[in-house]
From TrEMBL:
InterPro entries: DHP_synth-like, Hppk, Hppk_sf. GO terms for biological process: folic acid biosynthetic process; tetrahydrofolate biosynthetic process. It holds the Pfam family HPPK. Signal peptide: none annotated. This is 2-amino-4-hydroxy-6-hydroxymethyldihydropteridine diphosphokinase.
Length: 104
């Protein structure tokens, strides 16, 4: 099981509209399958090149945690990033879910 973005599920049939005011947003990231570090790097690159104006500003330290609830899976590598975007929270979620889907 791989989790890249800590958000709730949302429908992907909404259109994306860029708003005029930039907002600073923190996004929690986690991965526990494959090359976990590469998953972080790839997700960050995908956000930067998504063409939707997600500008990654800072990365937090990486840390490893034991899985909770479903414990028969690998440990998670976790972090957070700070981005600046003009997207609304819902629109940002749609973009992040699409990146997560593309990454498998």
């Amino acid at each position: 099981m791989q989790h890249l973005f800590a958000f709730f599920h949302s429908s992907s049939d909404a259109s994306i509209q860029v708003h005029s005011q930039e907002q600073e947003v923190a996004i929690a990231l986690g991965s526990n399958v494959g090359d976990r570090l590469n998953n972080f790097n790839k997700a960050s690159r995908q956000m930067k090149k998504s063409g939707t104006g997600i500008n990654v500003r800072r990365h937090a330290c990486l840390y490893e945690t034991e899985p909770t609830y479903v414990t028969d899976q690998p440990c998670f590598l976790n972090s957070a990033i700070r981005v600046v975007t003009k997207l609304s929270p819902h629109e940002l979620l749609l973009v992040l879910k699409e990146i997560e889907k593309e990454m498998g």
